[in-house]
Amino acid sequence: MTILDDIIAQKRFEVAEMRADDKVVHSRNILRPSLFKRLYEASHLQVIAEMKRASPSKGLIAGGANPVEQASAYFNAGAACISVLTDKTFFKGSFNDLAAVAEVVPIPLLCKDFMIDPIQIDRAKAAGASVILLIVAALNDEELTGLYSYATGLGLEVLVEVHDVEELKRALAVDAKLIGVNNRDLRTFEVDLARTEEISAVFPFGEQRVLISESGITGRVDAERISGMGAKAILVGETLMRSGTIEDTLRSMQVEVTGLSR
Ligand SMILES: O=P(O)(O)OC[C@@H](O)[C@@H](O)c1c[nH]c2ccccc12
């Protein structure tokens, strides 16, 4: 069993609980700008800044972090989008975190979770998300297609996460516009920015799609390397959660996009 298998098993249990429980976390549902449009039009690398207390690979990262303070600092530094981990068991997040952030920032908001069922997408939307994540490695083609159209049908944007070229093909088969490469292998936890490089070599940049590089990004040097691959955004958690100077750290990553990206 890999960690991804463990997480998905836990999610099946949580989905059953959600169905039996009508306590839904809500926030005011405000209209947020399109993440796709922001990234597509950007000339500088955009930062999707993540609220992440803990993870299976790193353990506790910032157990006492306050999601409202964290998100406000991200917003002030010009983050393009805020990602909030809502998984409780493995990442110590919650839909309450997401709803609290939704109340204080007006920018695109990503619900970061392991989606296997439409009810989770309903909960993400109720809590204020404008974007959800679908992880190709966690879904078969039928599930991926079904959840993708369910989310877009609700007016949500979808970030489709891939790890290799085979998974990229599956993302393109559902016509994903926002494609994220996870530099971390969810099976082994190994992190390598070369994952983004591999995908960028075959990425259809001409087709109104944006490439996002996720995980393991430690600062400006990594950001420059990734911008040279044509990615329009980076998804950064741990580096920002551990930074004593969040706004400076985030701003230092907003480098010019130098790779071929259209
Ligand atoms: O903390 P990092 O290494 O900057 O990574 C952030 C983000 O990419 C990572 O949290 C992530 C990427 N894909 C995921 C899927 C589920 C949970 C978490 C993730």
TrEMBL record:
Which residues does the UniProt record annotate as the domain Indole-3-glycerol phosphate synthase?
4-251
Keyword hit for Lyase: yes
Q: Which pathway does it take part in?
A: Amino-acid biosynthesis; L-tryptophan biosynthesis; L-tryptophan from chorismate: step 4/5
> What is the uppermost EC class here?
lyase
User: Could you confirm whether the keyword Lyase appears in this record?
Assistant: yes
Q: Which reaction does it catalyse?
A: 1-(2-carboxyphenylamino)-1-deoxy-D-ribulose 5-phosphate + H(+) = (1S,2R)-1-C-(indol-3-yl)glycerol 3-phosphate + CO2 + H2O
Quote the EC number.
4.1.1.48
InterPro entries, A to Z: Aldolase_TIM (IPR013785), Indole-3-glycerol_P_synth (IPR045186), Indole-3-glycerol_P_synth_dom (IPR013798), Indole-3-GlycerolPSynthase_CS (IPR001468), RibuloseP-bd_barrel (IPR011060)
Q: Which GO terms describe its molecular function?
A: indole-3-glycerol-phosphate synthase activity
Gene3D superfamilies tied to this protein: Aldolase class I
Q: Which UniProt keywords apply?
A: Amino-acid biosynthesis, Aromatic amino acid biosynthesis, Decarboxylase, Lyase, Tryptophan biosynthesis
* Classification via NCBIfam families: PRK00278.2-4
Q: Which family does it belong to?
A: Belongs to the TrpC family.
Protein known as = Indole-3-glycerol phosphate synthase
Annotated source species: Sporosarcina siberiensis
